[in-house]
Amino acid sequence: MSAFLLRITSFFIVLSFFFVGCQPTPKWKHYEGGIHLVLQVESKGNSTVDSENTARIAENIEKRVKQFGIKNIIIKVQGERQIVIQLPPCKNPDRVADLIGKSCFLEFKLVDEEHSVEEALKGNIPSGTEILYQKTLHPKTDQQIKIPYLIVDKTLMTGDALKDARVSFNQHNMPYIAISMNPAGARDFDQITAENVGRRLAIILDDNVYSAPVIRERISGGEAIIEGHFTLEEANDLAIILRTGSFPVQTEVIENRPLSRELWLGDN
Fold first, then answer.
1. How far apart are the first and last CA of the chain?
2. What secondary structure letter does DSSP report for 120?
3. With contact defined as beta carbons under 8 Å apart, do 144 and 136 qualify?
4. How are the residues of the chain apportioned to helix, strand and coil, as percentages rounded to the nearest 5?
5. How far apart are CA 97 and CA 101, in angstroms?
6. What pTM, to 2 d.p., does this model score?
7. Kind and range of the H or E run holding 189
8. Which residues contact 217 (CB under 8 A, 6 or more apart)?
9. What is the pLDDT of residues 164-192, one digit of tens each?
10. Which class is domain 27-103+249-258?
11. Which residues contact 200 (CB under 8 A, 6 or more apart)?
12. Dist CA 42 CA 250 (whole Å)
């Protein structure tokens, strides 16, 4: 056999080996053992469920996950109400799934101090109000207790007003969330505080009251804080959610299971 034919034969042997024995690993293999989540978008109050809000939620989810350094997330919107999220294997999958599933629908509402919360708890809830709770720890037993608030059922501001959210620490070295607002949010917050000096303003996340401070004076500049009995991890996760954008409407995780080949939505 001539040297030329030998070279051609060797080339085809190598090429054949590449295509038969050295094919690249199918994409699916990089996702095996990952997470499959389905979120359902829910309407609440004045919020509406539509394709635009659902698309915004999908974008926010991708931003959140990237904060953990996870790449190659698969997100598909199904209709107007559902979002499918698929992730490759990652550290702390439960924490990531929890981070994705939290809508963190942020609202600022006034506390109703004209009516009795005790009477409301008995079923005599005044029109235009609702009962929400603040979860806190008992100072002596460290057991969780729920403090009821009678809240005026009118949202004055939402998370759309936020520009940034960072973890800070108080004088007791306990973490809290420092938030700053965009120009429109700062103007609204200035007006809200100016019109309600002496009243309590509840800061509410997903129907949980995190704090309800008294408005001592008009607050300009668009700065506020969210306090709670946070661990540092909880505070960091909440800051990530608020910084990358709280959802414009609430969501509910209706499916959370290991990602299988049959469920996978990517290409081979």
1. 41
2. H
3. yes
4. 30, 30, 40
5. 6
6. 0.69
7. helix 183-195
8. 193, 197
9. 999 999 998 999 999 999 999 999 999 99
10. alpha beta
11. 110, 111, 113, 212, 213, 214, 215
12. 5
- pLDDT tens, position by position, 76-100: 998 888 999 988 887 778 888 888 8
What residues does each domain of the chain span? 27-103+249-258, 106-244
Extract the tokens encoding 166: 């960072």
Within 8 A by CB and 6+ apart from 49, the residues are: 41, 42, 43, 80, 81, 249
* Count of CA atoms in the C-beta half-sphere (13 A) of 47: 25
Coil, strand or helix: which one is 55?
helix
Quote the distance between the C-alpha of residue 25 and its chain's center: 33
Q: Which helix (H) or strand (E) holds 177?
A: strand 175-181
CATH architecture of 106-244: 2-Layer Sandwich (3.30)
Amino acid at residue number 251: T
Structure-block tokens of residue 33: 């053992």
